[in-house]
Amino acid sequence: MSYADTYTKKPITDIFTNDTDIDRRECKRTVPMRALLLAPGRTGTASMRAAMKQLGFIDTYHMMNCSIENPPDALLWMDALRAKYDGVGSFTRKDWDKLLGNSQAVCDWPACAFAKELIEAYPEAKVVMTTRDVDSWHASTLKTVYWRATDPELRLLSNFSWAARMYYPMLKKFFDAFFEGDFPNRGKDVFTSHYAAVRKLVPKERLLEYRVQDGWAPLCDFLHVPVPEDVPFPNVNDNSDFISRSRRRNRAQMYNVALQALEILGILLLVLYLVFYVQNSRFS
What we know:
By secondary structure, the protein is mainly α.
């Protein structure tokens, strides 16, 4: 059974988070894929997501799409990871269109793990690699997303929370597979080899290596779109409050779980009351 087939509807008690509940198994491509931003996260990908929106790209898919926006997406990402790294099943262009069909661009992780697959699936799309000094990237990732992938609170929640049950196993699988089971020691080498691999996969005329500090001009020139007038390039730096936001997310999911437990308890009490009432009625 695929992970996507384990999908369950969002509980009515999940009221403390604003997650959507879109089952993408029947989705199809609605807009053309125009750009593949295949660098790992923490290289300015959140800023790039905002920039691509400003340039008129319809939904640049980012890890946030499945971490805090539509958690069922994580099930399809898990199927893609298993197909690539474990040889379980397959993940074809049709599957990518289900997952990314509403997006004209994709960035961040886990998409970066599928550079070869996405380049082959969307040969018409331009490829952008945001770059960053490897040491500062590694330090930033250790303090943020790797911390999240090893967060014991999130791991515990994944046993009970509708959203965390889908998201956490995928996040852990991604880090274990892409970074060879040892991000602290292997992360820098994987980062460097990933860029080298993409350079070999993409003709120079289809590839832009780019720092977000370079602003609009090189990006717009490469994508053949106008430079926005009097609009500064987005600077979305979520490093400072990443952990506090993640902990707020944990708390909200805990409240969802607690409310669901109260619902179940209420149903059990009602059943016990009805049984007691019926028995008393029969013998009175």
